[in-house]
Amino acid sequence: MLSNYHKQKNYFPLFILFFFFAQACQKEHELSEEDFPSKLSAANIFSGTLSDLAPYSDYIPYELASELFSDYAEKQRLIKLPAGTQMTKINDVLPIFPEGTSIVKTFYYWNDKRDASKGKRILESRVLLLKNGSWLYGTYQWNSDQTEAYLLTSGSDQLVNWVDEDGIPNATSYRIPNMTECTTCHQQSMHVKPLGPKLHNLHLLVNNNGSLINQLTYFQNIGLMNNFDISTISAIPNYKDSNLTKEQKSRAYLDANCGHCHNPHGTSNDLELDLRYHTPLENTAILGSQSVLIERLESGQMPLIGTSVLDRAYVQQITQYLNSL
To answer: What does the pLDDT look like over 151-169, one tens digit per residue?
Structure first.
């Protein structure tokens, strides 16, 4: 059960810790122009017109079963491995990535989600690069003309006007994180690591040239992943799947949005919560802590950073689930 101390805890010391950790990482691994050019167009990620987000053939798109909520932003995910290398399975979570792996995630909003022909507004592209055994990271902010993106040295707030699938106009204050904020979520056991591409979150059916195929099998077929029996991977379900139980949807959502911090190796491991999907309920510390979790979710305190908008539909769903325990 979470104590009142944890409930009222001041997070400022955490940010101080993350700041000095991030500064140390940056000093140890200065971003070179070769690894992180000042302009995204020089990074050789996208071909043709930059805003078309058409990757070169060595960048492979991938999907996640359950994804992080980011103020309703859309995301394109890409991964590139050096020629002749593979990701290697060690367990259900992150594989071993070869030296030189690059992971790119681009965030954008459709101007009108009902009609893609009305275009999109691209806000940022985040790049992770594995070099000398450590993950370096840089963020590129797109200009208003959508012709170029520039490497940021600090965070930025952007007002985005967009229309949702129900035809409702929205104005979102979107936060592009600074280096310290990136470290806050991406730190595991004092090391910066990717969050999304865990094997149990890559274990889903995807469309490949009009046919459905398991994504892990597809990666194996194209040589991106070593061979193993994919049935040994315990998949995480898509929390948006209406066929799931309330518990499955809620636990999957908590894993995607909270589990990277609330686990024994995350930045909030002092709070005793373990919100990873495959942790048995009796070992999560959820039981007895429902009221604190509900308060934090409904107030927007959780997640700590990364959102400015409350994901009301899923917060309501999780609240119902927690109240049922």
So the answer is: 998 889 999 999 999 999 9
- In what helix (H) or strand (E) does residue 176 lie, and over which residues does it extend? strand 169-176
Amino acid at 192: V
Q: Write down the H helix ranges in 118-191.
A: 179-186
Please state, in angstroms and rounded to a whole number, the distance separating the CA atoms of residues 266 and 286.
Answer: 17
33 Cβ neighbours under 8 A, 6+ residues apart: none
> How many other β-carbons are positioned within 10 Å of the β-carbon of residue 299?
10
Hey, which bits of 23-114 come out as E strands? 60-61, 74-80, 102-110
Closest to 192 (Cα-Cα) out of 148, 131, 242, 111 = 131
3-state SS assignment for residue 123 = strand
Assess contact for 38 and 309: CB atoms under 8 A: no
Give the bridge partners for 201, in sequence order: none
The structural domains of the chain, with segments of one domain joined by +, span: 12-241
Phi, psi for 136 (deg, rounded to 5): -95, 155
Kindly tell me if the per-residue pLDDT of 177 is higher than 90.
Answer: no
Residues recorded for the chain: 325
Give the C-alpha separation, 65 to 238, whole Å.
5
Give the position of tokens 């040994």.
232
Average pLDDT over residues 9-22: 42
Please state the pTM of the whole predicted model. Answer: 0.87
Identity of the amino acid at 253: Y
Nearest C-alpha neighbor of 64 from the set 46, 81, 76: 76
State whether residue 17 is helix, strand or coil. Answer: helix
Q: Provide the CA 43 distance to its chain's centre, in angstroms.
A: 21
Residue 110 · residue 53 · CB < 8 Å: no
